Amino acid sequence: MSSTTVHNPGPTVSDASPVHRAGLIWWKALITGAVGAVVVNLIVFAVAKLADASLTVVNGTDEHAITVGDVIGASLVPLLIGTGAALLLALWKPVFLRIAQYVGGGLALLSVAGPLSSDADGGTVAALSLMHITLGLATVTTLELHRRNRILRTSDGGQSPTPKSA
Question: H helices within the chain, ranges in order?
Answer without folding.
Answer: 26-50, 68-92, 95-110, 113-116, 122-155
